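REVIEWER CHECKLIST
Item 1: Sequence provided? yes
Item 2: Single chain? yes
Item 3: Sequence as submitted:
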Amino acid sequence: MVIDASVILIPKPIFAALMDEEPGFRSFVMQIFAQRMSDVTRLLEQVAFGRIEARLAATLIDLADNGVVHANQGELATRIGSAREVVSRRLDAFQRQGWVETDRGQVRLADIPALKALLATPL
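Item 4: Structure as written out by the authors:
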């Protein structure tokens, strides 16, 4: 996955002065910081309390482009906070169920409703 981005570096003394003297800048920085903290908290909750199968299914659904996920098992493992071996076993189980088809570096979603059903299944 390729994402275009622009980066602006602000020297520390200028950043500190802007935080002290510019309410609009300070508000912007705090909003972005709060959003990042919220994202991290949500990820920690998913990793700590979510089942691997549900996290993997959600990630596959989120990353799918026309029903195909272009990611290897290591990348998927990193996204869900697990090990590549665990993802490999879960994908094999999904494939035996007929929910996905795996190939080198990609996963084709064969039964999206079944994957979505995993998201609603309680622990």
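Item 5: Key structural point noted by reviewer: The chain has six helices and three strands.
Item 6: Recommendation: ____
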